[in-house]
C-alpha cells in the first residue's frame, strides 16, 4: 500500500446522543447559587439542545447524583460545602473512583484563599476555575459554551473509539470463516450485532459479465426476518419500491435512501459489485452509518482475497485518522501532520530494528499522540503567544487525558497509542512531563513519536511560528540529542534525513 493511497480524507461525524438536553449538575450549599444559575442559564442553548439542571447541596449528594447520571456534561462545583475542601475531594472521587473522564468540572469558589487557582489546577483534574464574583451572566454563558463543546467532542472521540473496536471485532469474526457458504451470512449477523438493525438485512450479488443492466439480483446472504429469502431472486421476493431502489443504486453506483430502508452499493478491486439492503432501520445515527459503511467496505474487500489485508488496514487507518483529526482540527494543525507523524514513526521503527509488526503498529498509533488536546480550552490551545505558567499546567494535562481516553481499550493499536500519548513529552534527561521519566524508562513508542512529531512540527506553520528550513531543524535535533531526544532515534533520523524530508513533499500541508 503506497503512501499516496494513504492520503485519506477526514469525515466529520457526530457521536450518537439521543438525549434532548445537556445535563448540568450544580453542587453548592448555597440555595441562592442554584436559583441564580438556573435563572441566568434558563434560556441557554448549545447545538440546539436545552440544559437540564440537577442540584446537589453537598459533595456526598453530588457523588450520588453523578452515579445515577453518568451522562452529566458539566459540573458547576463549589469548593467549601460540608467541609473546607469537600469539592476538591469530590473531584478526585469523580476521576479516580467513578472513573468518569468526560464530565467537565468547573470549580466555582467564593473563598479563593481556601483553594488558590494555580495550586488547584496543578493538583486536580478540573477544566475551569472561576471565582463566584467574576461569574457574570455573559462569562457564565461563555464558560458553558467552552465546557459543552469539549464534552461533546470527547464523547465523539469515545464513540469513534468504541465504534472502531466493534468494527475490528466484527471484521475479525467474519474473516475467520473458511467456508464460503456461510461467510456472507456471518457478515450480516455481525452487521446486525454492530448497529442493532431491527429486522435484519440482505446481501445481493451482481453478475457483471453481461454488458447490459442485470435483470436479477441474487440474494446471497440474509439475516433476521429475511433468512427465508436466501438464494431467491430479489426482483421476485421484495416489494417493487425496494427493487427499484436497488436498480437505482446499481445504475448510479451510489447509495440509495428511502423513508424506511436504504441500499448501499459496493465495488471491489476486481470490479465485482454488490448491494446491501437494510429495511426498517432509518434511525441510524451518522456514526452508525459510517460504521456500517466501513464494515461493509471490509466485507466487500473480503471477497477479494488478493487485496484483503491492505484494504482492511486502510479502513482501520482511516478511523485512526478520524480520531486524530478531531484533536488536530481543534488545534488548527493540518490533517497531513498526523499522517506524516505516523509514517515517520514507522520509518524510525524499522531503522531502529524493531520487529516489523511493531513498526507498522507505530504507523497507526503515533497519529493519536495529541488526542488529549480535545479537552484543552480553545483559548489556551490556539493562543498565538507564549503560555502563562497556569496555562502551561493546563496545556500539559493533554498527555494524561489522551492516555485515559485510549487506555481502556484491549486493542494493541489503541493500547500503544495510549502509551504514546502519555510519554511523548518525556525528555531523555528526565526533564519532561507528565512523570519525569528518563532514558530507556521512557517507552520506545513515546521516544520515537517525540522525534517524529517535533521534526514535522518544526517544518510546519503554527499559530505561534513560521516553518523552519531543513538546516535549522537539523541543528535543533542535534542540539537536543541526548537531552530532549533519545540519541539513537535522532541518529536514525539523520541517516534517513532525505527520506523524512520527502514525506513533506509527498504529503504537504
Describe the structure.
The protein is an alpha/beta fold. The chain has 3 domains: 21-135, Rossmann fold; 180-309, GAF domain (Beta-Lactamase, 2-Layer Sandwich), CATH 3.30.450; 331-506, Hypothetical protein af1432 (Orthogonal Bundle), CATH 1.10.3210.10. The chain is built from 20 helices and 10 strands. The chain has helices at 31-40, 59-68, 86-97, 117-123, 137-175, 180-195, 234-237, 240-252, 286-302, 308-330, 335-351, 356-365, 378-381, 389-396, 398-407, 412-423, 444-458, 470-479, 487-495, 497-506, and strands at residues 21-27, 50-56, 74-78, 104-109, 128-131, 201-205, 218-222, 256-257, 261-267, 273-279. Strands 2-1-3-4-5 form a 5-stranded parallel beta sheet, sandwiched between helices. The chain has a 5-stranded antiparallel beta sheet with strand order 7-6-10-9-8, sandwiched between helices. Helix 3 (86-97) links the parallel strand 3 (74-78) and strand 4. The protein is flat, with a radius of gyration of 26 Å. 41% of the residues are buried. Residues 1-19, 177-181 and 305-312 have low confidence and may be disordered.
Give the helices and strands, then pairings.
Blueprint: E1 21-27, H1 31-40, E2 50-56, H2 59-68, E3 74-78, H3 86-97, E4 104-109, H4 117-123, E5 128-131, H5 137-175, H6 180-195, E6 201-205, E7 218-222, H7 234-237, H8 240-252, E8 256-257, E9 261-267, E10 273-279, H9 286-302, H10 308-330, H11 335-351, H12 356-365, H13 378-381, H14 389-396, H15 398-407, H16 412-423, H17 444-458, H18 470-479, H19 487-495, H20 497-506
Parallel strand pairs: 1-2, 1-3, 3-4, 4-5
Antiparallel strand pairs: 6-7, 6-10, 8-9, 9-10
Helix pairs in contact: 2-3, 4-14, 5-6, 5-9, 5-10, 6-9, 9-10, 10-11, 11-12, 11-17, 12-16, 15-16, 16-17
